[in-house]
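Aim 2 progress update. The chain analyzed this quarter is reproduced below.
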Amino acid sequence: MMRKYYIAGNWKMHKTVSESVALAKELAKELGPCGERVMVAPAFTALSAVAEALKGTNIVLGAQNMGPDLQGAHTGEVSPLMLKDLGVVAVILGHSERRHSYLETDALINKKVLLALAQGLEPILCVGETLEEREAGKLEAVVGTQVREGLKGVAASDLARVTIAYEPVWAIGTGKTATPEDADAVHAYIRVVLESLYGKPAAKAMCIQYGGSVKPDNAAELMAKPNIDGALVGGAALKAETFGPIVKFRS
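Predicted structure tokens:
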């Protein structure tokens, strides 16, 4: 059976509602018959309008983050109930920008992963090391901890709804990409960690995306690697002319 890849576009803090709708419509037109699984994650303010623009298409609506609680006195937070209400299916959690700029801990990220699963959302758990950590030989310790702590308490039966995204922090928005070999080696290591937690079949079945300066000209080479099952795309996801070719890397 031909593998189906999961390509997600993280729009980060870009685009007004009207700009988001315009991009969503362009993507819907261009990627309509695409064989891969495609997700886009606009800003919270644009979710409702983008949901409308994607109606009847195969493109999945994602959110870039969510709060760790269902409701209550949590000023400025967004609940999974609110996301589901808008038609959100997937949610990006533990992105390196949340970890490093907003100091989110493994424990907080884990709380969000468990809540997302309990509410029927599909989390993308992001993991990755900084350049300093890589150079100090701590890559496996850092990534292994993020995977173990992020999945703490996740039942084996829920694992199929989780995606892991490996993003070397030093390759995000810098134009530097881990070589396909480097990336694949870390993906393989993540499977070793998953095997120790859930067994071999679950580790093999896990969808692990690569994120970090994925572009039209390196997508096919990355996707060809045995342990890479998709991409979490940042900058290149902001234009149909760069995101489209990444999604259609087979053609």
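Residues 49 and 137 are 45 Å apart (CA to CA). The two ends are 18 Å apart (CA to CA). These observations will guide the mutagenesis experiments scheduled for the next reporting period.
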